[in-house]
Amino acid sequence: MAHRNWLTASALCAAIAVIVAAGAFFYSQQPTSADGRAMILPVDPQPLIAVTKGGERSFSIEVADTSAEREAGLMFREQMADDHGMLFVFEAPREVNFWMKNTPLPLDLIFVGQDGKIRAIKQGEPQSEAIISPGVPVRFVLELKAGTAARDGIEDGDLLRHPAIGGSK
């Protein structure tokens, strides 16, 4: 009887070891900012709409709504379409700090309040470790290619609409 219990325990330990090893292997295959590869999230089926004085502008977006996704962001991204961006979603309004380390694309960072209104627009310089912050609590940050906000007439006080931005559907 003791011999059979020992075999059962050994088999169980071996099965657990295989499961842990497989999990570690598959988890390690996910791109992260730590491995020097760009993280590509699925494009959200709903476009993000910027409501400006000159009309509405539509963007396809990736939504970064977990800590790992927000940390990786657009790092290592070499190119991005003019009408594409990444929306960072935080659990609650707070002061946020961004930087451009490991980000080769120049970006517009659009800081957005809980209500979907733009609080600040800042420029991000490629590869810079300088802190980029709006100086006020925000709930969302939209990153677009540099110059997009100016080109499309997106300004402080404009409204962003997207299902992830609950107060502005």
Automatic annotation (TrEMBL):
Instruction: Give the originating organism.
Output: Mesorhizobium helmanticense
Q: Which domain of life is it from?
A: Bacteria
Q: Keyword Lipid metabolism: yes or no?
A: no
Keywords noted in UniProt: Membrane, Transmembrane, Transmembrane helix
List all membrane-crossing ranges: 6-27
Q: Spell out the protein name for this chain.
A: DUF192 domain-containing protein
| Protein's UniProt keywords contain Coiled coil | no
Q: Note the Pfam families from the entry.
A: DUF192
